[in-house]
Amino acid sequence: MAGVSLDCDDPESLARFYLGLLGGRVLWNDAHSVGIRIPSGLTLAAQRVENYFPPQWPGSAAVQLELAADADLDLCEQHALAIGAKPAPVQQDPRWRVLLDPAGHPFAITTRAASM
């Protein structure tokens, strides 16, 4: 897998959020999209979509990023919230924290990834 594209109305803002959350570097930044390479080697592309509307959680998300956290899930969640994430209205499993990025895409963080 080379990358994941995330639709949004503000690619720069969404890319900045994921850089703050995951680290990495900007690969490109143009009028329609911003691409970042995160430390795992994956490329995330935030792409502008006319008349964008966010997915609904749970239910309509086409893709949900699942992210490995370090040993302190609460601290990782606090960091994500501090840089612009919002808590998802439904939490289905206490081993995972589902949050919404600034464009409304759900993503989950867990400390359980290493044991999967």
Automatic annotation (TrEMBL):
Q: Can you tell which superkingdom this protein's organism belongs to?
A: Bacteria
State the protein's name: Glyoxalase-like domain-containing protein
Q: Which residues form the Glyoxalase-like domain?
A: 4-109
- List, alphabetically, the Pfam families matched: Glyoxalase_6
Give the coiled coil ranges: none
Task: State the organism of origin.
Answer: Nocardia rhizosphaerihabitans
What the entry lists under SUPFAM superfamilies is as follows: Glyoxalase/Bleomycin resistance protein/Dihydroxybiphenyl dioxygenase
